[in-house]
Amino acid sequence: MPLIIEMFSFSFLVRAIVVGLLVSLCAALLGVNLVLKRYAMIGTGLSHVGFAAMVIAGVIDFAPVPFSLPVVVAAAFLLLRMNESSKIKGDSAVALVSTSSMAIGVIVMGMTTGITLHICNVMFGSIFAMTQSDMYISVALSVVVICLFVLFYKQLFAVTYDESFAKATGTKVEIYKSLLAILTAVTVVLGMRMMGALLIASLTIFPALSAMRLCKRFLSVVITSAVISVVCFFVGMVLSFGLDLPPGACIVGVNLIVFTVFSGIAFVRKKGIA
Length: 274
Description:
Blueprint: H1 2-7, H2 11-36, H3 42-59, H4 64-85, H5 90-110, H6 116-124, H7 132-151, H8 153-161, H9 163-168, H10 173-195, H11 202-214, H12 218-243, H13 247-273
């Protein structure tokens, strides 16, 4: 408890925790849909696009979030269209976009000097990178993502569970798939400031997979995933502060432990029933 009280005495940590909790919640809610739709790796692809965008933003001295957001949203639409109409689909499409984006970012970085620290922040995240204006933008966009998810929960569930049936019942599948892509892109950009391009995808994957170990109904998986994500984020931040370790890695480490424990419980339960 004294450690937690000490954490909240630092304004930059308060900003990081507020934004991180909201982004973790967004990532967990969307992560269930992405994992069930087998779009889990799209978070990695979009984070690499975000890496290139933020590098360019740093070079031209432009605010990273406003610059990266439309770029990553456009990349999300590109991946969606490639999966639907192109001969390059699935993991191949994600790999093509992500590696190309990473290469562009590295080339721009190689042609520019004096932004080493900025690149390190983009790759691995930094709680010090969260400014007051970043916090306001991130909180506002996170609230929008959560509200849209709740508002269109039934439609997103229908598209995720059975796309063909949803289309047959009159649901505008393309619109809600596009909505899912946009919300994912926004969440990835917001989370990159703290988790970095290499770790942000873990926020969408781990909580959903952990929840699926024990829960079977879609709603229970969504709720459990959200709780796991928020708790793991906070515990990871406390460990990061107490042990002086990178926050992104600590958060992923806590998620890995929770996934391992939940998998063990699921295994024991299955054996017990058998």
